[in-house]
Amino acid sequence: MLDIGTISLILLVAMLILLAIGMPLGFASAVLAAGVLLMKFGPDFLFGNFGQGPLNILAQRIYGLLTDYVLISIPLFIFMANLLERSGIAGEMYKSLNVWLSGTRGGIAIVTSIMAVIMAAMSGIIGGEVVLLGLIALPQMLKLGYNQNLAIGTICASGSLGTMIPPSIVLIIYGLITETSIKALFTASFLPGFMLASFFIIYIIITTQLNPEKAPLPEKKPGDPEGREKAALFGSFLLLIASGFSAALFVRALFFTVTGQNAVVEGVEAITFGTPDFVVKFGVALAIFLALIFFVAGRERTATGWSMGKGLVAPIVVIGVVLGSIYGGITGITEAAGMGVIAVGVIAALRGEMSFHLLWDSLKRTLRSTGTIIWVTIGATALAGAYTIAGGPTYIANTIVGAELPTMGIILVMMVIFLFLGAFMDWVGIVLLVMPVFLPIVQRLPVEELGFMGGLDARHVAIWFGVLFTMNMQVSFLSPPFGPAAFYLKSVAPPHITLTDIFRGFLPFIGIQLIALSILLIWPNIVTLFL
Amino acid sequence: MRAIDSFKELLWPSLFVASMAYLIWNFPKFILTFGWANNAITSTYVPAGALEYLSALIVAVSLVMGVRTVRTTSIEQDSETRWDDISLFMGRVAMMLVMLLVSVMFYEVVLRYVFEKPTLWANELSLWIAGFIFLLAGLYAMQQRSHIRIYLLYDIMPRWAQKLSDTVSVALIWAFTVSMIWGGYNEARAKFLRWETFGTAFDPPIPATMKPTVLLIILLVSIQALVNLIEDWNKAPEHHLPVDEAEIEELKHEIADRAKDPAKGA
Question: What is the ipTM of this complex?
């Protein structure tokens, strides 16, 4: 019926109108999917016979999405994050980190950043993280007389890292709709994520060294360990953790050897760290660590170190279970998420916090977030299916690529569009509606012209673009007028802190995020370094 | 919350899930009884017996009782009509399914990595359960008015324009639902009556159940959208923030409680 150029234009205008009148995103996409088919095939063909016809494409796309195994990881990661937020794990971790760093200039801000990174590595959601940091760290910083902008910016910028550092829900959805390996996306986003976090910490250190009044030191309590003694305590705590890990891996390898599961079979990949020689290796490591604890560090010092640092153990275990399952080749993403739920649940139960009330409330929130994310995905999948059948993505890619614009110019325009949309729209809407159009264009661009330094492998273009996207979304969480991090913090901040104050505090951190984004653009290899 | 309350909260949803599971697994027997069956079903199944009718009865009873007794808590949007109760009860059912899903996965991972005896059924069962969770979550989210919308312009509109926008939205949701059913009805019906399975070793009837369920739940969601429109018609406009304040309020309390009671946190 209509040609694809006209359909695309009508689609764009109709989408803007429906979003403006506040129609739910997923349903707006879904009805437009039917609209695209109507424009493509005409009413006679579409509604000619009840029960069949091209409209069945929508049902098939939706069914295909719902039976995608990876999608299951989304409710599970959300469930895990909800349990984490409601357990006292975060609060205790904060105390432990604070013990080690409180004497440093800007210590609490640094602790906040580190804590955000650890929480980001446990779950892939923001919001809850910003709220928790706002409840735990903000009162402390303000009480000590920290600069308000520094405190606010640190909490929100670091709290947004959840979607940058694996496991990240943004990357899971991106991988799902672009059919990119999610594990590769996780690996690729490691370095950029930590780079961004370290930029935050470096900024905190520099600014507090230049203006010490921004971060007054806490008064020293007599009897608190200092300097070398603190370092020694931290060392003995690390030894304890290391021996714990070697013991666990030793038992695991021993178990495999005793049961004979690790017998060498031709063509089957050996179990990571599970072959018989690792029994010896981990045994020796364990013996060395134990010897160091008893003869160098001393039992008393180790005990003190343990009591100061034990809040870090639970997070380390959770990260070990989730990321260890994925990278140790034990399970896929989905089962790793399931194991994460179990790990957090068991820890909460051991801490005596697990109750029916906590479980049931976490499930309610999980269900609600799942419903909103999945149904936008359902609508967008239907729309992407209909639009692809109408020939949309090819048409747009041809138009853009045919215009012979400079390659990096196109990428930059896309970044600007992401940043602009990010200020008004949820990330899930952007990734689902815009990515099916943008990614085919990017993949058609000459790969050797991407970036200014180093070269990108053609296979890694989709991964690089995905990480670029998550970096863009980091900015969008902070950018006015709708940066969600600001609203999350506002809801827990003292009343005298206004939204304007909060956004003002974000400015240097948005600058840092843009620097990190330009590094990814200039030197794409930072993404593929570990691939 | 006392133990007896937790029990009450869990009773009907779990009974519903259990009896529904039995019913679905044995549903081909009903297809046979009703005389719609093809040869494959006739050769594999016997007609529905007493147990099947009993399970159908329990499904009906637990559904009615569950809908009548479902209660909301402070973090949830209240229920105003019976239809809200249905969506809320379906949400409770989906919550039970999430717990079931986690248990199935845990069982499989333990069996696979500790005992080296992977099950044949766990992965596909997870897939099957998750499909229902995704769909029911959408119904719950609709009742809770938490589907993602952009309130930028909506919030500054006069109330009559908001009502007009909402009406257009609901009409379009119905347009989508009609389109879906128009295009998908035959396939869903055929797969259901054929009791089409997944074609694997465990062979769950995922196509036979999920295809009709997609259409059914999209229909329920649009009914809920209509109910929301009617319920909210005479309400004063509210301002929407990108965060859920009730939820944060609750979090604040929990953290404050823990700070007061160090024994709980340590």
Answer: 0.91
